[in-house]
Amino acid sequence: MATTTLDAAVPAPLLTRLGSRILRRETITRIQPYRGFCTADGAFLTGRVLAKEGPAVPSPDDSAWMNFKASYARWVTKDVPDALVEATFRGKRHLARTFEDGFFTFHLPTTPNLTRAPLWQTVPLRLPHTGVEATGKIFVPPASARFGVISDLDDTVIDTQLGNLLRAAKLTFFHNAHTRRAFHGVADFYRALQGGPTGRDGNPVFYVSSSSWSLYDMLDDFLAHNGIPSGPLLLKGSASDRTREAKRGHAHKLMKVRSVMEAYPDLPFLLIGDTGQRDPHLYLQAVREYGPARIHAVLLRDVTPHETGTARQTAADLCAAEARELGVPMARFADSAAALEIAGRLGLVR
User: What sign has the CA pseudo-torsion 224, 172, 81, 108?
Assistant: First the structure.
């Protein structure tokens, strides 16, 4: 959805009858901004307008029932379509409207010297017709960055037990960001990647996942609580995912990988995933498309590290063989210490 700059003297359109009926019937209670990122072509910021309070701030002492109520609040949302959203960025105001599911997108103009700005730029957001406010954040990769990281979340960073549906459901609905488990050493590993060979490169980290945007607050809190570098979260299920490919299985993750890599054409990337789902095949396709000039390596957390010769391991090794023929290392790792060792051999960390 295109955004409008108020300084261009374009009058703000009136709310449609549908939007007006919604606003009259129910008070809009919040704007949910999602972390955005800045490129040479502009800054991108998305979010959602919801007519319902969000889940309570989590605590490690929350009961299973309290966590279930918070999960229910995430999934049972009241979206506000066609709402007018105002963003203020670098002294100018911009307007956008929400899609039918309450999502909005801003494409904000930038200047060449933005790479010398703080890593996170704040963007005040407001609903002009109600006065509701929020603050969005846009990541600005520093000029010192040597490569970027694109990482899966489920069973790569956070232990989601996706191989066992009952356990996965229990973790999703009866736990919170403070009680979910990060894999041992993952925070140190990702901080080392962010620091790069010098320890202070400031390499950007992007997270892609098949999780719904309804889980955004939980995932964002989870990263912060576990000391894992924050970065834009690219999830699944918004009205902007309009193509059939974006809505089918895990294929949207490949689309997100493409969008990040094309947003930073001069930056090579490290791709991190796991062997539990389609990551080896999706990342292999990225290797086919971009080659060793753009992809340093692919690292896959082995979801069955104590077994040998499993179907998932075999599939990952077949993908790895083809990737190596194309000049890109693809390797399985059992834990974060092993991943850090591989990254060290590749010259990606100090």
Answer: positive
DSSP state, 79? B
Task: Provide, for the chain, the percentages of residues in helix, strand and coil under a 3-state DSSP scheme, each rounded to the nearest 5.
Answer: 35, 25, 40
Average pLDDT over residues 148-158: 95
Is the pTM value of this prediction over 0.85?
A: no
Nearest of 43, 36, 40, 35 to residue 3 by alpha carbon: 43
The four Cα atoms 33, 38, 39, 43 give a dihedral, to 10 degrees, of 50
Q: Could you give the 3-state DSSP secondary structure of residue 46?
A: strand
Report, as an integer, the average pLDDT of 292-298.
Answer: 98
One DSSP character per residue, 156-214 reads TTB---TTSHHHHHHHHHH--TTTS-BPTTHHHHHHHHHHTTTT-----EEEEEEEEGG
Look at 265 and 119; give whichever has higher pLDDT.
265
Can you name the residues that pair with 137 across neighbouring β-strands? 122
Q: How far apart, in whole angstroms, are the C-alpha atoms of residue 64 and residue 173?
A: 8
Over residues 305-321, the pLDDT tens digits come to 889 889 999 999 999 99
Residue 321 burial class via C-beta count within 10 angstroms: exposed 0-12, middle 13-18, buried 19 and up? exposed
Q: Which residues of 30-68 are buried (b: 16+ CB within 10 A; e: fewer)?
A: bbbbbbbbbbeebbbbbbbbbbeeebeebeeebeeebbe
What region does 34 belong to: left with phi over 0, alpha with psi -120 to 50, or beta?
beta
